[in-house]
Structure formats: structure tokens, C-alpha cells
């Protein structure tokens, strides 16, 4: 086993307001609307406080037969959403993701989506950082497009 920690970060800017971006990224039931083709099915395994996506919520994302579950561990309305991977057998340990939303001075939202994990087996960390970082980059791009469509600010 290894205990090497890896991190990655993706940044994007959306013309949509933070409230719209936050509503989409924190709502586990809606991921299948905007995160296709990676997430074809999304639902709540458990609702949190505040419902549905607050602290303690567990969203179930993926496509049959492969699903991941992510538990909300920090929830700051329209500003910050922190989650951890739970209940899954994955090649990484202690995965945490953090989406931070900052109002952009020109209007819209600056999005910072960061992740951290410990490699499960020595030598797998760099490949997993590339895979997870690539997935988050894909999700962030889809999130921006969905938020702009929903807010009516798409270019």
C-alpha cells in the first residue's frame, strides 16, 4: 500500500450566477441532465441538511452497473460544496472534491473544482490524477454549459 497524496485543480468561468451553478453541481438528482455521457443515471441515496444536497447527503452517480456514491461533507449555499467518495471499491483512497464558486467582477461565476486522494497502490497515483482530473475537467465544462443554458446567459 502507498500513502502518497495527489491533488488536481480545474478552473472555469461561467456567465451564469453562482446560485445557478451551485444548484446544479450540488443536486445529485440532476447530474444525469448535464453530465452525460459519463453520468447517465443520478439519484439521492440519502438526503442531507438542508435537503436535499446539504451535509450528509449521498448522491449516486454513474451508469449501470458502475456507480459511485459521494457524500456532502461541507455545504455553503451558492459558494462551496465539498464531498467525499464513499462506499466504493476504487483504485484511490480518501478522495475529496471541492467546488468553490466566486462571483466574477465582470458578471457570472469563477469555478474552482479541486480534488485530492491517496493512491491505492504504489505507482498508480499519476495515472489516477490524470483520469480524475480529466473527468472533473469534463464535468466542469458540462456544468458551465448547463448553468448558462438554465440562466439564459449562454453565448
Automatic annotation (TrEMBL):
InterPro entries per UniProt: Polyketide_cyclase/dehydratase, START-like_dom_sf
Gene3D superfamilies per record: 3.30.530.20
Pfam families: Polyketide_cyc2
The protein's name in its UniProt record: SRPBCC family protein
The organism of origin for this protein: Mycobacterium spongiae
Amino acid at each position: 500500500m502507498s500513502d502518497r497524496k495527489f491533488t488536481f485543480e480545474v478552473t472555469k468561468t461561467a456567465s451564469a450566477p453562482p446560485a445557478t451553478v451551485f444548484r446544479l453541481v450540488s443536486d445529485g438528482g440532476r447530474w444525469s441532465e448535464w453530465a452525460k455521457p459519463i453520468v447517465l443515471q443520478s439519484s439521492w441515496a440519502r438526503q442531507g441538511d438542508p435537503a436535499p444536497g446539504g451535509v450528509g447527503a449521498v448522491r449516486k452517480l454513474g451508469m449501470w452497473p458502475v456507480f459511485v456514491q459521494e457524500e456532502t461533507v461541507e455545504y455553503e449555499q451558492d459558494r462551496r460544496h465539498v464531498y467525499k467518495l464513499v462506499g466504493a471499491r476504487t483504485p484511490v483512497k480518501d478522495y475529496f472534491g471541492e467546488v468553490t464558486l466566486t462571483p466574477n467582477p465582470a458578471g457570472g461565476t469563477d469555478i474552482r473544482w479541486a480534488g485530492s486522494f491517496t493512491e491505492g497502490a504504489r505507482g498508480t497515483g499519476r495515472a489516477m490524477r490524470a483520469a480524475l482530473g480529466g473527468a472533473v475537467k469534463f464535468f466542469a465544462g458540462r456544468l458551465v454549459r448547463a448553468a448558462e443554458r438554465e440562466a439564459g446567459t449562454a453565448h
